[in-house]
Specification:
Two copies of one chain form a homodimer. Chain A has 108 residues and is of the alpha+beta class. The first copy, chain A, has helices spanning 3-10, 13-22, 29-33, 40-52, 72-85, and strands at 27-28, 56-61, 64-69. A three-stranded antiparallel β-sheet of chain A has the order 1-3-2. The longest helix of chain A is centred in the C-terminal third of the chain and has 14 residues, at 72-85. The interface between A and B is large, with 37 and 38 residues. Chain A binds a DNA duplex (30 and 30 nucleotides) through helix 3 and helix 4.
Chain lengths: 108, 108
DNA sequence: TATCTAATTAGAATTTTCTCTAAATACAAT
DNA sequence: ATTGTATTTAGAGAAAATTCTAATTAGATA
């Protein structure tokens, strides 16, 4: 959904590797899982995180589930990183609310 | 050091917000901490993660510690993301070792 | 219907991450 | 030397993430 989910999803090496696999095109859950030394249940957990982060999309066919990269999210990420390394004072809003409510009135 | 530390560091909203603050230039640990509703010890923990990920550098002056953005890591990240959304079959090596040792000899 | 295959969900165990309090370090100023 | 300020380190508790086994869902096939 937001950046939080996306960054969280990308923080796990298994999930990043799944994304790299999907660069070559869509794959079934089972075929992806064959590349890892983990149970299907665990793989399913990771697919869910990636779906939640909009990094992959899922389509069902027969009794298979296929996953595919959603590259549009990468576009947004690239923009964020370019903003981070770019000129100062460019407006930026991450949607995070980790700043206190200016309790001392100093206005920051 | 590697991508793993970098992505892990970026997965926390407090740490991303610290980076955004540092876009305006270097700041002391205390000044950064003033933007958050957390103890100095906790802030120090986050600084350590960011240093570990090479996302910030530290310089000591008098009894202050100043932190500064290291934008070169963002360059690498942008490259990674552009590779992810780009043409297939481009060589990619993330340094992760999450793939099993091809125990069945199928070779993938 | 019964059974097989593909994949997910549920629940528990383990590990990791985040945050705090208390104590320690380092430098500055009295 | 003592006190004060800025920051980190140590250790512990709470919360979140990762992984497993067992059970479940859903469709395909005999």
């Amino acid at each position: 959904m937001g950046f939080q989910e996306t960054f969280k999803a990308l923080s796990d090496p298994v999930r990043r590797e799944i994304l790299v696999l999907l660069r070559d095109g869509r794959m079934s859950a089972g075929d992806i899982g064959a590349h890892f030394d983990m149970t299907g249940a665990t793989m399913s957990y990771h697919f869910k995180q990636l779906k939640n982060a909009d990094l992959i999309t899922e389509t069902k066919e027969k009794n298979f589930v296929y996953y595919e990269l959603n590259t549009s999210v990468f576009d947004e990420l690239v923009m964020w990183f370019e903003m981070m390394r770019g000129k100062k004072n460019e407006k930026i809003d991450m949607g995070d609310s980790t700043v206190p409510a200016d309790g001392d009135g100093s206005g920051g």
